[in-house]
Design goal:
The chain has 385 residues and is mostly helical. The protein is built from 13 helices and 3 strands. Helix 2 packs across helix 6, helix 3 packs antiparallel against helix 6 and helix 10 packs antiparallel against helix 11. The structure holds zinc ion.
Length: 385
């Protein structure tokens, strides 16, 4: 497949005009800076690695191999636009919040759960009819009050989501996950045998870990360069803030992003099979990998990063709780049967305490992601040799 065909099939390139229309000029500028940063900072092992934001309201990012040795990472505008709109709304709720928490548990079964009608534009999964979806998202975003400092923070959070998504997909390409899958599938005696579902899950966990490691290293690098970064033309697409604010927003972004992919509010057990662990576990892996990366890359920053990331997670959790209170009081409408309780919680991601009961599961899955890293090193050694 050629680059142009891959982009066209995914919805076509989102032009600057479209970005400005959907994200506002300030949001579009931040997104463009983040894209430039990623494009300039990454190299494929061989061939060209393109990164495109495509004009689609989907939530599904993808990495595709192209003709020759080239590849492309496709990020739908729908994810970035939802991230910005949701971040603006969450920050507004946080600013006006009453700090009451709706409690729940990711181990609870939630039969009949559905998204509150007013949150469908950001949390819903659509099929077809992009025009209607863009209108709904724009009207959702338009009803959030403008506020300069919150909007800047929301653009940062959006850029950081974009960074995570791009780095996750790029890991699939750069680390040649498809090649490892091929070797294992063909029972190549040079690599250990492994069941394909376990391998696929391991590859996704590995991509999450590497996305967190790369993002953490980028933020630390830009912070360490501080004033010098601007002179060198390094712009990350985030506001010129301190290291603590940057990592706080980064952790807010990760928490929010995984909440957006928590589409079924299913229990952890519902995720026993399939390619992805529960979103809450994916967040925990991201957090763990961020701290591990800082420990080895910039240990002096560790204390600040630990505090900032905890704060970001906490603030996002509080904001989601406020969103749930607003839901409970009817601000986001009611489902057809009138029972708003069916729409709560908005996400199963916000709960901190049950994580304590899930430590062994989280650690076990994390080890799988690290084990894949070992297999990739082995594979690259074989193929180079
Ligand atoms: Zn993936």
């Amino acid at each position: 497949m050629r680059l142009a065909d891959a982009v066209a099939m995914a919805g076509g390139s989102a032009s600057h005009g479209i970005l400005e229309d959907v994200l506002t000029p300030a949001g579009a500028a931040a997104a463009n800076e983040a894209l430039t940063f990623v494009r300039e900072g990454t190299e494929a092992t061989d061939g060209l690695l393109a990164l495109e934001v495509v004009n689609s309201n989907s939530m599904t990012c993808a990495a595709r191999r192209l003709e020759g040795r080239d590849s492309v990472v496709l990020i739908p505008l729908g994810v970035i636009a939802r991230a910005r709109a949701l971040a603006r709304r969450l920050l507004q709720h946080l600013a006006h919040g009453k700090s009451v928490r709706v409690v729940g548990n990711p181990l609870d079964y939630r039969p009949g759960w559905e998204i509150a009608p007013g949150l469908v534009p950001v949390y819903g999964q659509y099929e077809g009819d992009d025009e209607h979806q863009w209108d709904a998202l724009k009207s959702f975003d338009g009803s959030t009050e403008p506020d300069e400092s919150r909007d800047t923070a929301a653009s940062d959070i959006m850029s950081l989501c974009l960074l995570y998504l791009a780095m996750h997909e790029m890991t699939h390409v750069v680390s040649r996950h498809d090649r490892l899958l091929e070797l294992v599938r063909s029972s190549d005696p040079r690599v250990p045998s492994m069941s394909l579902p376990v391998l696929r899950r391991g590859l996704e966990i590995n991509a999450d870990i590497m996305a967190a490691v790369t993002t953490a290293r980028c933020l630390a690098m830009v912070s360490l360069l501080s004033a010098g970064a601007k002179e060198k033309g390094i712009a990350l697409g985030v506001a010129d803030t301190g290291l603590d604010t940057l990592f706080e927003r980064c952790s807010f972004a990760a928490t929010m992003l995984f909440s957006m992919y928590d589409t079924h509010r299913a229990t952890v057990f519902n995720y026993d099979e399939g390619s992805y662990p529960h979103p809450l576990i994916r967040y925990e892996h991201t957090h763990e990998a961020t701290l591990e990366a800082i420990k080895s890359f910039a240990p002096d920053l560790l204390e600040t990063v630990v505090q900032s990331t905890e704060l970001g997670w906490l603030r996002c959790n509080q904001a989601i709780s406020e969103l749930e209170n607003a839901c409970l009081f009817g601000e986001y409408g009611k489902p057809a049967d009138g029972n708003i309780l069916r729409c709560l919680p908005v996400t199963a991601l916000k709960y901190g305490t049950p994580v304590l009961h899930m430590q062994s599961r989280i650690a076990e899955e994390y080890r799988l992601g690290i084990q894949i890293e070992g297999l990739l090193v082995l594979m690259n050694g074989l193929e180079d040799g």
